[in-house]
């Protein structure tokens, strides 16, 4: 049991040494290099563009039911007027 714990401790210490290792030429650590390259941003959750802007709705953006009927029926009424037919719209 002691051997296993000791071996795990050695692996943990070895990993920490690799992570905090400085490069001999530049003297930079992996942490500094990661920050400069934006590695932390890669690990952050993505934000979609759908969440960025919320469009405000105004009443004039919507048409009333009467306006909609008139707009939909106006080409039909113009056609019927040209053809000589008479139809009443409720």
Hey, roughly how much beta strand do the residues contain?
A: under 5%
Q: H/E order of the elements?
A: HHHH
List segments where confidence is low: pLDDT < 50 over at least 5 consecutive residues. none
The number of helices is 4
> Helix- and strand-based class?
mainly alpha
Any idea what the radius of gyration is? 36 Å
Overall pLDDT level: 66
Biggest beta-sheet profile: none
End-to-end distance, in Å? 90 Å
Write up this protein:
Helices cover 56% and strands 0% of the residues. It has 4 helices and no strands. It is rod-shaped. It has a domain at 1-45. With 90 residues, the protein is mainly α.
Could you give the topology of this structure?
Blueprint: H1 2-19, H2 30-37, H3 39-43, H4 65-83
Task: Give a quick set of tags describing it.
56% helix
Brief summary:
This protein has helices at residues 2-19, 30-37, 39-43, 65-83. The protein is mostly helical. The model has no long low-confidence stretch (mean pLDDT 66).
